[in-house]
Design goal:
This protein has 284 residues and is mostly helical. The chain has one domain. It is 79% helix and 0% strand.
Length: 284
Amino acid sequence: MSQGPHLTPAVIAVVIGAGALHACWNAIAKQVQDRLMAFAWIGIASTIAGGAVLLITGLPYRAAIAFAIASAVIHVGYDLALMNSYRLGAFNQTYPIARGTSPLLVAVGAYFLAGEHLGTIAVIGIATLAGGLMSLALSSGRLTRRDAPAVGAAVLTGITIACYTIVDGLGVRRAGDPWAYTALLFALQGPPLAAVAATCRPAASWRDRAGTERGLVAGILCVLAYGIVLWAQTKAPLAEVAAIRETSVVFAALIGMAALGEAFGKRRVAAAMVIATGIVLIGI
């Protein structure tokens, strides 16, 4: 690995925690029947949080602003792809595929765009972790032709994840202050889906107390989870942070078992062990 940002046990622990928060807000969003409204409220929470932090930090350096704008656009595409994948497939299938698609793509992108040359063990660790993540999607059995639309939407979601991860990694390192960059990003990406919901949903949809509360809670968790990841991207290589962050699928599997009545099963235990092995290899 080239000199520069490097992984430490503290960064690993913090990013795994961010993964847990990410799994929680996705599970909450999945449970809201009207997902456009759920993401509208997530966007509102993001905008409020981002605006509040910007009042304290001010804008990031000018060199980072274009990256934040580009990332906000990609995030809107990510939200739409994620909503579609949740509409078409089960949480315990689409979430692991989406999260498992991105680590290797980020590693390739970071190699060419950020000049990050990972060591052999780290590359093996990322590949091992990605394989474990993807195996969780198959933990309930083989995919069928009926699964194709959901799988396609999940893979598209994973591609958008890789794109915004690379863009944000490059942007936050030019920002001067990672929290200023994070705040600007959330302030920019929050309004679009809220605006779409305002034109597509009746006033009664905005008075759904349960949906509102869940959406706002999910939005707060989303801001915390990704803010932590952006900070970590200033401390460690993008590919390693992205790979470790996707341990969120293990937490998603646990949430599915505890809250959604989904069995964990031997296959998921085996997949979790593969993921743990990948994390160890990345951290060596």
